[in-house]
Amino acid sequence: MKLIRKLTLPAIAALAVYTNSSLAHDITSNFSNPGRFATDYWLITCEAGTNHLFFRVKDFTPNTSRVSAMVVKGTRVVFTTDLVDSDALLSTRRLFAQGSGGYHLFVFKSNGNGLGNDEYLVQAHCENAVGDHMETEYTLRQDQ
Ligand SMILES: [Ca+2]
Fold first, then answer.
1. Ligand 1 center to residue 52 CA distance, Å?
2. 71 CA to middle of ligand 1, Å?
3. Residue 73's Cα: distance from chain center in Å?
4. pLDDT tens for residues 33-76?
5. Is CATH 2.60.120.380 correct for 4-142?
6. So where are the chain's domains?
7. What is the pTM of this model?
């Protein structure tokens, strides 16, 4: 079953525990597959007037697996990896300037010894050219 989450301002405020910005959009989830490899697929839709998608990822689970986030739109792709799991830092932020519409977000883990259901956080929000947050909608397309 697909999960559709459209974040409203009260929901955003409730998720603000992970950030200083009350306008951040956070996806907190985990891999349901405890094996060595898994990919979750989210569709992020940005409203008209969007310039770019801001995104970065955090791996909450202390093991040897690495969690990455890769975004595809049109013929372009950008990714980032949380190199140190279980510390306080997120991965390097990425700004992917592909305008409004659908961004395909793939969150994945990969490591031969990294067994377990990693929990992760993706901060992702659509922004206009001056960095104002735009309406951001998430749909889970694949849960692994
Ligand atoms: Ca980290």
1. 24
2. 19
3. 14
4. 877 789 999 999 999 999 999 999 999 888 778 899 999 999 99
5. yes
6. 4-142
7. 0.80
